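User: Need the bound-state model for alpha-D-glucopyranuronic acid:
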Amino acid sequence: MKKFQKVLTALLSAVLLSTMLSGCGSGADAGKRIVRIGHNQATDHPTHIALLEFEAYVESKLGDKYNIEVYPSELLGSQTDMVQLTQTGAIDFCVASNSILETFSDNYTLFNMPYLFASSRAYHASMDDPNITDPIFESTKKAGFEAVTWIDAGTRNFYTVSTPIYSPADLKGLKIRVQQSPTNVEMMRLLGGSATPMGFGEVYTALQSKIIDGAENNEMALTSNGHGDVCKYYSYDMHQMIPDILIGNCAFLDDMPAEDRAVFEEGFLLVNQVEREEWTKAVEAAKEKAANDQGVEFIYLDTAPFQEICSPMHENVLGQYPDLRPFYEKIQEYNQLYPTDAVEGGSEE
Ligand code: GCU
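Assistant: Bound-state model below.
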């Protein structure tokens, strides 16, 4: 399978490179540099909306030089394929889950730890703190890519076709799809379910054909990806807040003139801002649609037993990757500052 993926990636690279070489010179776009950005979400997703804003912004400033093209829905391959394509420069940017990046750099293991953040506020503050993110985002430069901004992907929870999850014991014997990362596989092992790693695009069919009993993700997966058509129980165990990361090819970023780079940097900030605004609205709409149109039951449960089982993972990861400890400690400071999402007046952020 791995060999097949490598061949596929090589083929995709070759096709993209040849269209890139021949594709920057016809009609009104003659002479413009085509900038390709790939992601795996549908066109109604906040990530796509934010990237279209990026396209509009950069083209409004530098439209005579760059033609930005956004490719949604795994059109350029799975996230793993797209990271490899970005690494080689066959495409310029892609959005990858932090989980997938763990297989490219150990540093990304940090943000995959279950129950790392005490609240969304602590999560946002940590991801907005360059003292935490810069060293990690820059750590893949030698490998040919770097992270240019992070994207909110909410909170991950378990959802199942027919067995409601109220406690870790309910996961026993269930095959649960996880993202392809060692941390996620280990988390599932500890919680007692059977981890089934696979790419995002394969999950719907695997659920429908009962190859798996459930999966774990944010609420958007129920609606935007249709998983709520098959899975009728969504349990708020809140095990991870895993960001998505927009990564870019280093040669492309480093070779552009400084004034162009400044516009791209403003564009990256815009991606983060727009996506976060859209995210809050999109999750509300997804919950409403899942409950009312798809008949999904949302289960609010005691998260403590899940958290307790996963807690040894923190010291295990830090033991394995001691360089991550200062960033972990800084996150703990934000956890103390924002222990919950409850704000004055009692509403949730
Ligand atoms: C979320 C996340 C994606 C990721 C997906 C997954 O949708 O935003 O980046 O690919 O989860 O579970 O694979």
